[in-house]
Amino acid sequence: MSFGIRLHIWGERACFTRPELKTERFSYDVITPSAARGILEAIHWKPAIRWCVDRIHVLKPVRFESVRRNEVAGKLPAGTVSKGIKSGQIDEVHYFVDQNRQQRASTILRNVGYVIEAHFEFTARADDGDTPGKHLDIFNRRARQGQCFHMPCLGTREFPASFELIESDEQMPSVDDSLCGERDLGFMLHDIDFANGRTPRFYRARMHDGVIDVPPFAEALA
Amino acid sequence: MTAIANRYEFVLLFDVTNGNPNGDPDAGNLPRLDPETNQGLVTDVCLKRKIRNYVALEKEEEAGHAIYMQEKTVLNNQHKKAYDALGIKHEAKKLPKEQAKARELTGWMCNNFFDVRTFGAVMTTEVNSGQVRGPVQLAFASSIDPVVPMEVSITRMAVTNEKDLEKERTMGRKHIIPYGLYRVHGYVSAKLAERTGFSEDDLELLWRSLINMFEHDRSAARGEMSARKLIIFKHDHAMGNAPAHRLFDSVTVTRVEGEADTPARRFQDYAVTIDREAIPAGVSVNERL
């Protein structure tokens, strides 16, 4: 933990979709390590580093809300695009949203706030130029100034995340009283194992006074 | 077309008078409400649809501005002009064929379709790069004050079925909001724009569409909707020069006319102020409306 960071994130709404409830999206109670990693990567990431989430502090009470929206029923088949390129006609490449429509409800979180504690490790693609100090400085500088590669989001892109760096000598934001005590959040997605055919891996999330200790990815259950 | 080199955030204020800005399918098409605060809501996808429709209207004939996610109503079957047949030239790295092909597909889609270039799209390819993340991100819009939807019963002097001929008329319902001023936040990432080729011209078109999208979306259900204010924050740096939330906090909308607890009925009942002192260095503010 020689180069850990702490990032405070918050937002109006969030949706960390449970993989088993994806059609009518249903959010987990709290942010997943994989979503937290995505937020860190939105601020700074290079192929040389890999973010590892160590701890998640939940700051606000868990509250849900339901939103139903018109969504498209399908994705764009790659074949359609190839045909369009070949024929040179873009008139054939279209999607009629009012004919292929699904109304789907999402059960999302309201008013969330978290602190992500994380560090990074080097991947096989790191070279001599990649020192821990360099990447740590870049991340801290960007997070301090509110800079980002793209605006991080709380699960899905319509729920943007505001973020602030918590300096090493700074106090943690206060945790809501309702989160005191022990809570077992059950099995939660840890992250996706991209090296092995994108299989999801899970961990048993337990919250002590708003704090969830995240085990290393290698220890997560496939 | 070179991609934009600056990060942007924007605040759009729009209002509705005696209309339904965005119906809730869960509540029989009542205007969407935030159950906790009774503020009105308009989803991000609702506004994106209007942006697409505006672009389709303005750029009917133009190459590179087709709309992939079409509604029948804006469909025009006129011949589109010829276009650049190939996608963006990527630096020739030794990529597996699959991935190179996927890149070619996404490149071609980005070049030809404005909405793919702006909002992104998901394409079903075996390779992950078949997903395009667009530079433009919109959040939910919510009203400044709580809104109270009204149910208006209306009659029609005709019937649909012959068996109802005796009745002479049918009753219907409309849900309207007497007045609501809505605020929405948006983000434009310069770095993602590089990947889809979202250019300065596209950005200008986006601003135009935000200002004019309600002008071409009149209907019996909508009532009077109009864009009232578009405040754009431009960062000098591609990564940005300030946290977005601080910029958004500098824009406040306050009630000025009438008693504080009485319902607002006009845009003039509100005042929009930008605290220019609070804008950090390296960010310029532009009021487009």
Automatic annotation (TrEMBL), chain A:
The keyword Heme does not apply. Gene3D superfamilies: 3.30.70.2660. The keyword Nuclease applies. Its EC number is 3.1.-.-. Pfam families: Cas_Cas5d. It comes from the Bacteria. GO terms for molecular function: endonuclease activity; hydrolase activity; RNA binding. Keywords: Antiviral defense, Endonuclease, Hydrolase, Nuclease, RNA-binding. GO terms for biological process: defense response to virus; maintenance of CRISPR repeat elements. It is an enzyme of class 3 (hydrolase). CRISPR (clustered regularly interspaced short palindromic repeat) is an adaptive immune system that provides protection against mobile genetic elements (viruses, transposable elements and conjugative plasmids). CRISPR clusters contain spacers, sequences complementary to antecedent mobile elements, and target invading nucleic acids. CRISPR clusters are transcribed and processed into CRISPR RNA (crRNA). NCBIfam families: cas_Cas5d, CRISPR_cas5. Belongs to the CRISPR-associated protein Cas5 family. Subtype I-C/Dvulg subfamily. This is pre-crRNA processing endonuclease. It comes from Kushneria avicenniae.
TrEMBL record, chain B:
CDD domains: Cas7_I-C (cd09689). GO terms for biological process: maintenance of CRISPR repeat elements. InterPro entries: Cas7_Csh2/Csh2, CRISPR-assoc_prot_Cas7/Csd2. It comes from the Bacteria. Pfam families: Cas_Cas7 (PF05107). This is CRISPR-associated protein, Csd2 family. It comes from Kushneria avicenniae.
